[in-house]
Amino acid sequence: MEELTQWVLDLRGSGWSFAVVALVLLIGGVVTFLPSQSLVVALAALTAGDEGWTALINLFGLFGFCVVGMVLGDIGTYWLARGIGFGKWSWMNGRRLTAVRTRVGDQLKTRPKWVMVTVRLLPMGRIATVLAASDARMPMPRFLPLCVLASAVWVGYAVIIGAAFGSFSTDNPLLMMVLAVATAIALGLLAQVVNGWFEKIADRRKAHHAAG
Hints:
This protein is an all-alpha fold. It has one domain (1-192). The protein is 79% helix and 0% strand. The chain is built from nine helices and no strands. α2 packs parallel to α4 (52-84), α4 (52-84) runs antiparallel to α8 and α5 packs across α7 (125-135). Keywords: Cell membrane, Membrane, Transmembrane, Transmembrane helix. It comes from Pseudoclavibacter helvolus.
């Protein structure tokens, strides 16, 4: 156990660990089952355990690496969808992803910033927003700023959760890391439930207006 703890502690402030997480976020634009958020939260929890300004500087470094990785992954997914019809492949057209993708596409015209940021915080939200933007043929000069904004909010959210637990107690970094990841997963599930409620309310209102 002591060896495992020491190995984990060695990840603090490690540039290669930041690069690995950024690479996971880049690939995660297509490979949606990777535990991207859990990795960011876990590493942020460990990094926050550093002393003084070192922790703050390294957290900003982690944030920067992750945003770059996520944006590059989104750009790659966007062009794959535009170029080879990646978004039309059968495994990209599951019932839930298709529903979210359609709903995002409907709202991109009226409130693109709100949709790109909020939906990304939900499970499968990242791929849904990128594919919806591709479906709508959103120009890259418009897509890129929205992508950067959404990625920064998503990464910032994950880093803050991890940092909050990591700075709370430096005596047991493994426990803080596990608690941070568990909290992030629980918040994601809660957000999914709340979003489902709002979707049902919106559908009922549409049905009511259609009937009226």
